[in-house]
Protein backbone atom coordinates (compact mmCIF):
# COMPACT_ATOMS: atom_id res chain seq x y z
CA UNK A 1 0.00 0.00 0.00
CA UNK A 2 1.52 3.28 -1.08
CA UNK A 3 2.28 5.51 1.91
CA UNK A 4 2.86 2.66 4.37
CA UNK A 5 6.38 1.51 5.15
CA UNK A 6 7.31 -1.45 7.35
CA UNK A 7 10.47 -2.36 9.19
CA UNK A 8 12.30 -5.33 7.73
CA UNK A 9 12.45 -8.70 9.47
CA UNK A 10 16.18 -8.24 10.04
CA UNK A 11 15.55 -4.91 11.81
CA UNK A 12 13.17 -6.56 14.26
CA UNK A 13 15.15 -9.80 14.56
CA UNK A 14 18.14 -8.09 16.16
CA UNK A 15 15.91 -7.20 19.15
CA UNK A 16 14.38 -10.69 19.44
CA UNK A 17 15.74 -11.23 22.95
CA UNK A 18 15.59 -7.63 24.17
CA UNK A 19 12.38 -6.14 22.75
CA UNK A 20 10.50 -4.16 25.44
CA UNK A 21 7.14 -5.64 26.50
CA UNK A 22 5.55 -2.19 26.34
CA UNK A 23 4.37 -1.57 22.75
CA UNK A 24 5.10 2.17 23.04
CA UNK A 25 8.70 1.47 24.06
CA UNK A 26 9.05 -1.08 21.26
CA UNK A 27 7.71 1.44 18.74
CA UNK A 28 10.20 4.03 19.96
CA UNK A 29 13.09 1.56 19.79
CA UNK A 30 12.22 0.60 16.19
CA UNK A 31 11.31 4.13 15.10
CA UNK A 32 7.79 3.23 13.95
CA UNK A 33 4.30 4.63 14.50
CA UNK A 34 2.54 1.28 14.97
CA UNK A 35 3.45 -2.20 16.14
CA UNK A 36 1.71 -5.52 15.57
CA UNK A 37 1.86 -7.95 18.48
CA UNK A 38 0.27 -11.28 19.11
CA UNK A 39 0.44 -14.80 20.43
CA UNK A 40 0.15 -18.32 19.08
CA UNK A 41 -1.45 -21.07 21.15
CA UNK A 42 -1.70 -24.66 20.02
CA UNK A 43 -3.68 -27.54 21.40
CA UNK A 44 -3.76 -31.06 20.05
CA UNK A 45 -6.54 -30.28 17.57
CA UNK A 46 -6.59 -26.51 17.26
CA UNK A 47 -4.43 -23.46 16.67
CA UNK A 48 -5.39 -19.99 17.90
CA UNK A 49 -3.62 -16.82 16.79
CA UNK A 50 -4.41 -13.56 18.60
CA UNK A 51 -3.26 -10.34 16.95
CA UNK A 52 -3.50 -6.67 17.85
CA UNK A 53 -2.42 -3.43 16.19
CA UNK A 54 -1.14 -0.85 18.68
CA UNK A 55 -0.40 2.83 18.14
CA UNK A 56 3.10 3.68 19.29
CA UNK A 57 2.12 7.08 20.64
CA UNK A 58 0.24 6.22 23.83
CA UNK A 59 -0.02 2.47 23.30
CA UNK A 60 -3.69 2.54 22.30
CA UNK A 61 -5.09 -0.53 20.59
CA UNK A 62 -6.36 0.24 17.09
CA UNK A 63 -7.56 -3.24 16.14
CA UNK A 64 -7.48 -6.80 17.43
CA UNK A 65 -8.86 -10.19 16.46
CA UNK A 66 -8.53 -13.92 17.10
CA UNK A 67 -7.98 -16.46 14.32
CA UNK A 68 -8.62 -20.21 14.45
CA UNK A 69 -7.15 -21.52 11.17
CA UNK A 70 -7.42 -25.13 10.13
CA UNK A 71 -4.55 -27.11 8.64
CA UNK A 72 -4.93 -25.63 5.16
CA UNK A 73 -5.37 -21.89 5.55
CA UNK A 74 -2.38 -20.47 7.46
CA UNK A 75 -1.41 -18.33 4.47
CA UNK A 76 -4.99 -17.11 4.18
CA UNK A 77 -4.86 -16.09 7.83
CA UNK A 78 -1.53 -14.31 7.30
CA UNK A 79 -2.91 -12.38 4.33
CA UNK A 80 -6.05 -11.46 6.27
CA UNK A 81 -3.97 -10.10 9.16
CA UNK A 82 -1.87 -8.04 6.73
CA UNK A 83 -5.05 -6.80 5.02
CA UNK A 84 -6.63 -5.70 8.29
CA UNK A 85 -3.44 -3.93 9.39
CA UNK A 86 -3.28 -2.12 6.03
CA UNK A 87 -6.93 -1.08 6.30
CA UNK A 88 -6.63 0.30 9.83
CA UNK A 89 -3.21 1.96 9.46
CA UNK A 90 -4.04 3.25 5.98
CA UNK A 91 -7.38 4.60 7.11
CA UNK A 92 -5.77 6.61 9.89
CA UNK A 93 -3.08 7.91 7.55
CA UNK A 94 -5.56 8.67 4.81
CA UNK A 95 -3.64 6.67 2.20
CA UNK A 96 -6.07 3.80 1.61
CA UNK A 97 -9.80 3.25 1.95
CA UNK A 98 -9.60 -0.55 1.81
CA UNK A 99 -6.95 -3.11 1.07
CA UNK A 100 -7.61 -4.95 -2.15
CA UNK A 101 -7.41 -8.66 -2.74
CA UNK A 102 -8.77 -11.73 -1.02
CA UNK A 103 -6.78 -14.64 0.39
CA UNK A 104 -6.37 -17.28 -2.26
CA UNK A 105 -3.77 -19.75 -1.01
CA UNK A 106 -4.41 -23.07 0.71
CA UNK A 107 -1.15 -24.61 1.92
CA UNK A 108 -0.59 -27.57 4.22
CA UNK A 109 0.02 -26.26 7.75
CA UNK A 110 3.13 -28.34 8.41
CA UNK A 111 4.53 -27.46 4.98
CA UNK A 112 4.11 -23.79 5.70
CA UNK A 113 5.72 -24.17 9.14
CA UNK A 114 8.73 -25.89 7.56
CA UNK A 115 8.99 -23.09 4.99
CA UNK A 116 8.97 -20.44 7.72
CA UNK A 117 11.73 -22.31 9.58
CA UNK A 118 13.71 -22.38 6.35
CA UNK A 119 13.35 -18.62 5.96
CA UNK A 120 14.71 -18.17 9.46
CA UNK A 121 17.80 -20.23 8.64
CA UNK A 122 18.23 -18.48 5.28
CA UNK A 123 18.66 -15.13 7.03
CA UNK A 124 22.16 -16.23 8.15
CA UNK A 125 24.38 -16.64 5.11
CA UNK A 126 26.67 -19.43 6.18
CA UNK A 127 27.05 -23.04 5.06
CA UNK A 128 25.36 -24.64 8.05
CA UNK A 129 22.34 -22.33 8.12
CA UNK A 130 21.72 -22.56 4.36
CA UNK A 131 22.03 -26.37 4.60
CA UNK A 132 19.34 -26.35 7.30
CA UNK A 133 17.20 -24.02 5.21
CA UNK A 134 17.41 -26.43 2.27
CA UNK A 135 16.34 -29.29 4.53
CA UNK A 136 13.28 -27.34 5.66
CA UNK A 137 12.30 -26.26 2.13
CA UNK A 138 12.66 -29.85 0.93
CA UNK A 139 10.44 -31.02 3.79
CA UNK A 140 7.85 -28.42 2.81
CA UNK A 141 7.80 -29.64 -0.79
CA UNK A 142 7.36 -33.24 0.36
CA UNK A 143 4.37 -32.22 2.46
CA UNK A 144 2.86 -30.04 -0.28
CA UNK A 145 4.25 -30.65 -3.76
CA UNK A 146 2.42 -27.60 -5.18
CA UNK A 147 3.89 -25.13 -2.66
CA UNK A 148 5.71 -22.87 -5.15
CA UNK A 149 7.61 -20.59 -2.70
CA UNK A 150 9.21 -23.62 -1.04
CA UNK A 151 10.38 -24.92 -4.41
CA UNK A 152 11.72 -21.46 -5.31
CA UNK A 153 13.77 -21.09 -2.13
CA UNK A 154 14.96 -24.68 -2.36
CA UNK A 155 16.38 -23.77 -5.78
CA UNK A 156 17.83 -20.55 -4.37
CA UNK A 157 19.53 -22.45 -1.54
CA UNK A 158 21.25 -24.73 -4.05
CA UNK A 159 22.28 -21.62 -5.97
CA UNK A 160 23.95 -20.20 -2.87
CA UNK A 161 25.98 -23.38 -2.44
CA UNK A 162 27.21 -23.03 -6.00
CA UNK A 163 27.86 -19.31 -5.84
CA UNK A 164 29.71 -19.39 -2.53
CA UNK A 165 31.80 -22.46 -3.40
CA UNK A 166 30.53 -24.64 -0.57
CA UNK A 167 30.76 -28.42 -0.71
CA UNK A 168 27.37 -30.14 -0.61
CA UNK A 169 27.96 -33.48 1.09
CA UNK A 170 27.37 -36.39 -1.25
CA UNK A 171 26.75 -34.28 -4.36
CA UNK A 172 28.99 -32.89 -7.10
CA UNK A 173 28.57 -29.31 -8.26
CA UNK A 174 26.80 -30.51 -11.40
CA UNK A 175 24.36 -32.51 -9.30
CA UNK A 176 23.68 -29.51 -7.06
CA UNK A 177 23.04 -27.40 -10.17
CA UNK A 178 20.66 -29.96 -11.63
CA UNK A 179 18.73 -30.19 -8.37
CA UNK A 180 18.48 -26.42 -8.27
CA UNK A 181 17.23 -26.14 -11.85
CA UNK A 182 14.66 -28.86 -11.23
CA UNK A 183 13.38 -27.06 -8.12
CA UNK A 184 13.14 -23.75 -10.02
CA UNK A 185 11.17 -25.49 -12.78
CA UNK A 186 8.81 -26.97 -10.19
CA UNK A 187 8.28 -23.53 -8.64
CA UNK A 188 7.39 -21.91 -11.96
CA UNK A 189 5.23 -24.85 -12.99
CA UNK A 190 3.22 -24.35 -9.80
CA UNK A 191 3.10 -20.54 -10.16
CA UNK A 192 4.49 -18.91 -13.29
CA UNK A 193 3.90 -15.45 -11.74
CA UNK A 194 6.07 -16.11 -8.68
CA UNK A 195 8.85 -13.51 -8.45
CA UNK A 196 11.04 -15.76 -6.29
CA UNK A 197 10.76 -18.54 -8.87
CA UNK A 198 12.19 -16.30 -11.59
CA UNK A 199 14.84 -15.02 -9.18
CA UNK A 200 15.99 -18.59 -8.51
CA UNK A 201 15.97 -19.38 -12.23
CA UNK A 202 18.13 -16.33 -13.00
CA UNK A 203 20.52 -17.03 -10.14
CA UNK A 204 21.12 -20.61 -11.25
CA UNK A 205 21.45 -19.51 -14.87
CA UNK A 206 24.48 -17.47 -13.88
CA UNK A 207 26.18 -20.74 -12.88
CA UNK A 208 24.82 -22.63 -15.88
CA UNK A 209 26.00 -19.94 -18.34
CA UNK A 210 28.82 -18.06 -16.55
CA UNK A 211 30.36 -16.64 -19.72
CA UNK A 212 27.27 -15.68 -21.72
CA UNK A 213 24.81 -14.97 -18.87
CA UNK A 214 22.11 -16.47 -21.08
CA UNK A 215 18.78 -16.30 -19.30
CA UNK A 216 20.08 -14.30 -16.34
CA UNK A 217 18.93 -10.79 -17.19
CA UNK A 218 15.60 -11.98 -18.59
CA UNK A 219 14.76 -13.97 -15.47
CA UNK A 220 15.77 -11.24 -13.02
CA UNK A 221 13.98 -8.55 -15.02
CA UNK A 222 10.82 -10.63 -14.87
CA UNK A 223 11.25 -11.29 -11.13
CA UNK A 224 11.52 -7.55 -10.43
CA UNK A 225 8.60 -6.65 -12.70
CA UNK A 226 6.46 -9.17 -10.81
CA UNK A 227 7.61 -7.80 -7.42
CA UNK A 228 9.53 -4.54 -7.38
CA UNK A 229 10.09 -4.92 -3.61
CA UNK A 230 11.75 -8.34 -3.82
CA UNK A 231 14.97 -7.42 -2.03
CA UNK A 232 16.55 -10.82 -2.60
CA UNK A 233 16.07 -10.49 -6.36
CA UNK A 234 17.30 -6.89 -6.38
CA UNK A 235 20.37 -7.81 -4.33
CA UNK A 236 21.42 -10.81 -6.39
CA UNK A 237 20.76 -9.04 -9.67
CA UNK A 238 22.98 -6.19 -8.49
CA UNK A 239 25.83 -8.63 -7.71
CA UNK A 240 25.54 -10.31 -11.09
CA UNK A 241 25.44 -6.98 -12.94
CA UNK A 242 28.51 -5.86 -11.02
CA UNK A 243 30.33 -9.04 -12.03
CA UNK A 244 29.30 -8.31 -15.64
CA UNK A 245 30.86 -4.82 -15.41
CA UNK A 246 27.68 -2.75 -15.03
CA UNK A 247 28.79 -1.03 -11.82
CA UNK A 248 26.47 1.99 -12.00
CA UNK A 249 23.29 -0.09 -12.33
CA UNK A 250 24.54 -2.44 -9.61
CA UNK A 251 25.07 0.45 -7.17
CA UNK A 252 21.61 1.80 -8.00
CA UNK A 253 20.02 -1.58 -7.23
CA UNK A 254 22.06 -2.07 -4.05
CA UNK A 255 20.92 1.33 -2.78
CA UNK A 256 17.31 0.46 -3.56
CA UNK A 257 17.71 -2.62 -1.37
CA UNK A 258 19.24 -0.56 1.45
CA UNK A 259 16.31 1.86 1.21
CA UNK A 260 13.95 -1.09 1.66
CA UNK A 261 16.03 -2.91 4.31
CA UNK A 262 18.61 -0.58 5.91
CA UNK A 263 19.86 -3.37 8.21
CA UNK A 264 20.83 -5.76 5.38
CA UNK A 265 24.54 -6.38 5.99
CA UNK A 266 25.24 -8.45 2.88
CA UNK A 267 23.98 -5.62 0.66
CA UNK A 268 26.07 -3.04 2.52
CA UNK A 269 29.08 -5.26 1.76
CA UNK A 270 28.01 -5.38 -1.88
CA UNK A 271 28.04 -1.59 -2.03
CA UNK A 272 31.51 -1.62 -0.53
CA UNK A 273 32.75 -4.05 -3.15
CA UNK A 274 31.18 -2.00 -5.96
CA UNK A 275 33.05 1.10 -4.77
CA UNK A 276 36.27 -0.91 -4.47
CA UNK A 277 35.92 -1.86 -8.14
CA UNK A 278 35.62 1.85 -8.92
CA UNK A 279 38.75 2.47 -6.78
CA UNK A 280 36.69 4.56 -4.36
CA UNK A 281 38.33 2.88 -1.39
CA UNK A 282 37.29 5.35 1.31
CA UNK A 283 33.61 5.10 0.35
CA UNK A 284 33.95 1.32 0.23
CA UNK A 285 35.43 1.24 3.72
CA UNK A 286 32.40 3.06 5.15
CA UNK A 287 30.05 0.42 3.73
CA UNK A 288 32.23 -2.44 5.01
CA UNK A 289 32.28 -0.93 8.51
CA UNK A 290 28.49 -0.71 8.34
CA UNK A 291 28.22 -4.35 7.23
CA UNK A 292 30.45 -5.56 10.08
CA UNK A 293 28.42 -3.56 12.61
CA UNK A 294 25.17 -5.02 11.28
CA UNK A 295 26.36 -8.64 11.11
CA UNK A 296 29.62 -9.23 13.01
CA UNK A 297 29.27 -12.99 12.56
CA UNK A 298 29.30 -12.93 8.76
CA UNK A 299 32.69 -14.23 7.65
CA UNK A 300 32.34 -13.07 4.05
CA UNK A 301 32.03 -9.45 5.18
CA UNK A 302 35.50 -9.70 6.75
CA UNK A 303 36.90 -11.03 3.46
CA UNK A 304 35.73 -7.94 1.56
CA UNK A 305 36.71 -5.61 4.37
CA UNK A 306 40.17 -7.17 4.62
CA UNK A 307 40.84 -6.85 0.92
CA UNK A 308 39.83 -3.19 1.13
CA UNK A 309 42.28 -2.67 4.01
CA UNK A 310 44.98 -4.33 1.93
CA UNK A 311 44.27 -2.05 -1.04
CA UNK A 312 44.86 1.03 1.10
CA UNK A 313 48.02 -0.40 2.69
CA UNK A 314 46.63 -1.33 6.12
CA UNK A 315 48.24 -4.79 6.21
CA UNK A 316 47.80 -5.31 9.96
CA UNK A 317 44.03 -4.79 9.80
CA UNK A 318 43.83 -6.98 6.69
CA UNK A 319 45.56 -9.83 8.57
CA UNK A 320 43.07 -9.41 11.40
CA UNK A 321 40.12 -9.63 9.01
CA UNK A 322 41.61 -12.74 7.35
CA UNK A 323 41.97 -14.44 10.73
CA UNK A 324 38.38 -13.52 11.65
CA UNK A 325 37.05 -14.93 8.36
CA UNK A 326 38.86 -18.21 9.04
CA UNK A 327 37.65 -18.34 12.65
CA UNK A 328 34.05 -17.85 11.52
CA UNK A 329 34.22 -20.81 9.18
CA UNK A 330 35.08 -19.38 5.76
CA UNK A 331 38.40 -21.21 5.54
CA UNK A 332 38.75 -20.83 1.78
CA UNK A 333 38.14 -17.10 1.79
CA UNK A 334 40.30 -16.46 4.83
CA UNK A 335 43.15 -18.58 3.45
CA UNK A 336 42.95 -16.87 0.07
CA UNK A 337 43.16 -13.49 1.74
CA UNK A 338 46.07 -14.63 3.90
CA UNK A 339 47.96 -15.79 0.80
CA UNK A 340 47.41 -12.49 -0.99
CA UNK A 341 48.46 -10.51 2.09
CA UNK A 342 51.67 -12.46 2.60
CA UNK A 343 52.56 -12.29 -1.10
CA UNK A 344 52.09 -8.52 -1.19
CA UNK A 345 54.06 -8.16 2.05
CA UNK A 346 56.97 -10.08 0.48
CA UNK A 347 56.53 -13.12 2.74
CA UNK A 348 56.98 -15.78 0.05
CA UNK A 349 57.00 -18.69 2.48
CA UNK A 350 53.73 -17.57 4.08
CA UNK A 351 52.11 -17.20 0.66
CA UNK A 352 53.26 -20.70 -0.40
CA UNK A 353 51.83 -22.20 2.79
CA UNK A 354 48.48 -20.53 2.06
CA UNK A 355 48.53 -21.93 -1.49
CA UNK A 356 49.15 -25.43 -0.13
CA UNK A 357 46.19 -25.09 2.23
CA UNK A 358 44.00 -23.95 -0.68
CA UNK A 359 45.03 -26.93 -2.81
CA UNK A 360 43.62 -29.18 -0.09
CA UNK A 361 40.19 -27.56 -0.58
CA UNK A 362 38.67 -29.05 -3.75
CA UNK A 363 36.65 -26.04 -4.88
CA UNK A 364 39.53 -23.65 -4.23
CA UNK A 365 42.16 -25.32 -6.42
CA UNK A 366 41.53 -22.86 -9.21
CA UNK A 367 42.16 -19.99 -6.81
CA UNK A 368 45.37 -21.66 -5.66
CA UNK A 369 46.56 -21.87 -9.27
CA UNK A 370 45.88 -18.14 -9.71
CA UNK A 371 47.97 -17.49 -6.61
Q: What does the model show?
A:
Helix 4 (109-122) runs antiparallel to helix 5 (127-143). 64% of the residues lie in helices and 7% in strands. Strands 1-2-3 form a three-stranded antiparallel β-sheet, sandwiched between helices. It has 18 helices and three strands. The longest helix is centred in the first third of the chain and has 20 residues, at 74-93. It is mostly helical and 371 residues long. Mean pLDDT is 84; it is low at 97-104 and 363-371.
**Main sheet attributes: strand count, strand direction, barrel closure:** 3 strands, antiparallel
Our measurement of the CA-to-CA distance between the termini, rounded to an integer number of angstroms, reads: 51 Å
Unreliable stretches (pLDDT < 50, length at least 5) are 97-104, 363-371
Number of strands: 3
User: What's the tally of helices?
Assistant: 18
Radius of gyration: 23 Å
**Looking across the biggest beta sheet, what order are the strands in?**
1-2-3
What is the residue-averaged pLDDT?
84
Strand content: 5-15%
Order of helices and strands: HHEEEHHHHHHHHHHHHHHHH
Rough outline: globular
| Share of helix, binned | 55-70%
Regarding quaternary structure, what we see is: single chain
